[in-house]
């Protein structure tokens, strides 16, 4: 796991056309571009489950935990930003990726652990996005059915969910053939616009619902009409969902590598802006959604508006989710694509099958190895999604699984090494206490999510059970 993902750096010395590391394309990023990248990365499908998560925790604990996670993300991201350069913060060696930073400061076995967690998590996120995208298309079909046949119509669509997964997978096979990350910038912009589209629609619909209800629903302690064991399990799962909604530290170093100067200072400002905007949007979305539906808030908010009129507005929101997830799938899979392909080139440097590029149309180039392996990757993730369509449980588990190591542990440990924080000093003890608290939350949330997954597996019949 020691292969760098950075493919476009040449170490020939700086000039007016290159940066200090000889990079061919000079960095031009600033606080606003970095903020835009972070906001785009953070706001995603995890937002849809926030009203349900607040419903498990209640009006007090729900917002408090949301603010707590935003604080943790901001603080540890600030520590991580200081680790972009090794040694001198101005002239020290750049760490182009998250794994490069772990290699520079911690090294050894921890690099491999970081790599496995990072790439397994990216693999899992890809599966979750396929499931969520299919749920969105299924929601459009059911919304149209209710509008046509009435609110009491059964409108069965259990088998169509798998059809939608296949449609999403086929679309990703096509987009996966775009060779390099920088060539899908337009897809990322479209995805970002779509994320703001469906989140805005969700907030607006919830406000309309609250007005129609004549008041705010929900309670201070959350859902109470369940057994104590189920209540505990759902609270733990809700913590995982909130953690996942804030998850972006794994790509922070890569974003920081686009900033033209004063990287650490600029990145901290960008982190403050992005976390502030995201937290405000999350609080609005989660609280208005819970206020609108109370204990009946669905694990994906838009599904709560089953027969809303005008129904086409709800269709637009679900279509926006589908389009957003097409781009998000590509963004999160690109680091994994680059890692495997660079590893293959290093293992078989003389193989024409791996390295040969054939120009097809314009500047588009086809590589047989890329065509086959990326297609197989998409097919595998699609099949797994079809076998395990437990979206809310998967989201909770992914958030819990990756939150502590990638968001808290590695940033804190690297910061301690970088700043030479003395062991058992006040700062060292406080950092370790923060890490321990987040570890306990991670273990608890993972336990709750795994329990929910086991419960669903017991009654699940592949390709037959509806979700």
UniProtKB/TrEMBL annotation:
Residues 1-21 are annotated as: Disordered. The keyword Transmembrane helix applies. The keyword Transmembrane applies. Keywords: Amino-acid transport, Membrane, Transmembrane, Transmembrane helix, Transport. Residues 28-453 form the Amino acid transporter transmembrane domain. It is found in: Membrane. The chain crosses the membrane at residues 31-50, 57-76, 116-140, 184-208, 270-291, 311-332, 371-391, 397-417, 429-450. It holds the Pfam family Aa_trans. GO terms for cellular component: membrane. It comes from the Eukaryota. GO terms for biological process: amino acid transport. Its main location: membrane. This is Amino acid transporter transmembrane domain-containing protein. It comes from Dioscorea zingiberensis. The lineage of its organism: Eukaryota, Viridiplantae, Streptophyta, Embryophyta, Tracheophyta.
């Amino acid at each position: 796991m020691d292969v760098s993902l950075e493919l476009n750096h040449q170490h020939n010395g700086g000039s007016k056309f290159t940066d200090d590391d000889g990079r061919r394309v000079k960095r031009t990023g600033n606080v606003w571009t970095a903020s835009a990248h972070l906001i785009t990365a953070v706001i995603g499908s995890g937002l849809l489950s926030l009203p349900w998560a607040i419903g498990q925790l209640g009006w007090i604990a729900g917002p408090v935990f949301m603010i707590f996670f935003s604080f943790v993300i901001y603080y540890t991201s600030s520590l991580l930003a200081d680790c972009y350069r090794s040694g001198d913060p101005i002239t020290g060696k750049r760490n182009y990726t998250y794994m490069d930073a772990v290699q520079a400061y911690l090294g050894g076995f921890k690099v491999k652990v970081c790599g496995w967690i990072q790439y397994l998590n990216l693999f899992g996120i890809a599966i979750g996005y396929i499931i969520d995208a299919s749920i969105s298309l299924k929601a459009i079909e059911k919304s149209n059915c209710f509008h046509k046949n009435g609110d009491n119509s059964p409108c069965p669509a259990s088998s169509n969910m798998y059809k939608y997964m296949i449609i999403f997978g086929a679309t990703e096979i096509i987009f996966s053939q775009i060779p390099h990350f920088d060539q899908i910038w337009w897809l990322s912009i479209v995805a970002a616009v779509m994320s703001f589209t469906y989140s805005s629609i969700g907030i607006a619909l919830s406000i309309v619902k609250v007005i129609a209800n004549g008041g705010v629903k929900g309670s201070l302690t959350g859902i109470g009409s369940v057994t104590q064991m189920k209540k505990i399990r759902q609270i733990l799962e809700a913590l995982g969902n909130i953690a996942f909604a804030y998850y972006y530290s794994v790509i922070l170093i890569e974003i920081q590598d686009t900033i033209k100067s004063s990287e650490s200072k600029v990145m901290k400002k960008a982190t403050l802006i992005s976390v502030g905007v995201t937290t405000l949007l999350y609080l609005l979305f989660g609280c208005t959604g819970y206020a609108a539906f109370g204990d009946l808030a669905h694990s994906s908010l838009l599904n709560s508006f089953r027969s809303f009129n005008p129904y086409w507005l709800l269709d637009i929101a679900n279509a926006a989710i589908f389009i957003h997830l097409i781009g998000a799938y590509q963004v999160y899979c690109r680091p994994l694509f680059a890692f495997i392909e660079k590893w293959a080139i290093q293992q078989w440097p003389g193989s024409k099958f791996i390295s040969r590029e054939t120009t097809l149309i314009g500047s588009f180039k086809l590589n047989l190895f890329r065509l086959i392996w990326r297609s197989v990757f998409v097919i595998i993730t699609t099949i797994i999604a079809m076998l395990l369509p437990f979206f809310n449980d998967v989201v909770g588990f992914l958030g819990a699984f990756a939150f502590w190591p990638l968001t808290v542990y590695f940033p804190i440990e690297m910061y301690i090494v970088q700043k030479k924080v003395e062991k058992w000093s006040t700062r060292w003890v406080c950092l370790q206490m923060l890490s321990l608290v987040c570890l306990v939350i991670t273990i608890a949330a993972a336990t709750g999510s795994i329990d929910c997954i086991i419960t669903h597996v017991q009654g699940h019949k592949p390709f037959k059970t509806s979700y």
